[in-house]
Design brief:
By secondary structure, the protein is α/β, with parallel strands linked by helices. The protein has two domains: 47 residues, no CATH class; 178 residues, Rossmann fold. The protein is built from eight helices and ten strands. A hairpin with a 4-residue loop joins strand 8 and strand 9.
Length: 280
């Protein structure tokens, strides 16, 4: 049976609309946040534009609807963009003014006490931490340093599948400490650093790693408390410098007194939203 030419075109248009849910040749411009204009040519793009408009109005997150290949900007994980850096002890703020950045590697060389001080403050906001390949790291020392043990795990000897263990921990734990017994091939290190950047986790190492964002190195220690044949050791002062790869950013460094005061851990008051009244 021969179908007239006009009906054939009508059937063809109907099949195109049902097959891909798109109307050919129909394009419209949708304003997003009063600034950006998005060209919409199908239902999925229209839904994304509506979601972007809602996010722009509420301030939920930054929205960039330009594809990376068109904008020329390297794609970064939303976890890294949206979540703020982890806090650091006030005594180390001059060396780490940006905090403990997520998606980056920070090396701490020469002092386990300094390492635990960083872990304690990083976990003050509810983050979890795990130490891998660091059997000399004691639970008692961690507790005295202010680390919340209910959110701190130890994997002293990860075994032959160390790279796999670290990759799994980076996926689920906010702060991962890599001890001196972890030895990885260069290819595994590069893959792990890329995974840390993608997942938005923070990585602390006790040895120098390629691609470390910051390296904190203890260059000297001075103890106090002993008298002329009596007394006991009470405090220690560490001379800490920061360098990035081969460049020394703080050549003179600063003195950090141990023990580092533990952070104040507790629920933060939530400010009521504008126009709402807190009752009860």
């Amino acid at each position: 049976m021969r179908v007239p030419e006009g009906e054939q075109e009508g059937h063809k248009e109907g099949r195109q609309q049902q097959g891909d849910g798109r109307e050919d040749g129909r394009r419209e411009q949708v304003p997003v946040g009063g600034v950006t204009t998005v060209v919409v040519d199908n239902r999925a793009a229209r839904a994304r534009a509506a979601l972007a408009l809602a996010e722009a109005r509420t301030g939920a997150r930054r929205v960039d609807l330009t594809p990376p290949e068109q904008s020329g900007v390297r794609a970064v994980s939303l976890l890294t963009q949206e979540r703020p850096p982890m806090p650091v002890p006030p005594s180390l703020a001059p060396l780490l003014p940006e905090g403990l950045r997520r998606g980056a590697v920070t090396a701490v060389l020469g002092s386990s006490a300094l390492l635990l001080g960083l872990v304690a403050h990083a976990c003050a906001d509810g983050a979890w931490a795990v130490a891998v390949g660091h059997p000399s790291l004691g639970v008692l020392a961690a507790a005295r340093g202010g680390v919340p043990l209910e959110r701190f795990a130890l994997v002293p000897r990860p075994g032959p599948q160390t790279a796999t263990v670290l990759a799994a921990l980076v996926d689920g734990v906010g702060l991962v400490i890599v001890g001196p017994q972890v030895v990885l091939p260069a290819a595994d290190v590069r893959r792990l650093v890329a995974r840390v950047r993608e997942r938005g986790a923070a990585l602390l190492t006790t040895t120098t790693w390629p691609g470390s964002q910051a390296v904190l190195e203890v260059t000297g220690t001075r103890w106090s408390g002993l008298g002329a044949g009596d007394g006991r050791l009470r405090h220690a002062e560490l001379h800490v410098i920061r360098r990035d790869r081969v460049q020394v950013l703080a050549p003179h460094g600063l003195d950090v007194r141990l023990p580092i005061p533990a952070p104040q851990i507790g629920p933060r008051p939530v400010a009521p939203a504008p126009g709402l009244q807190l009752v009860g």
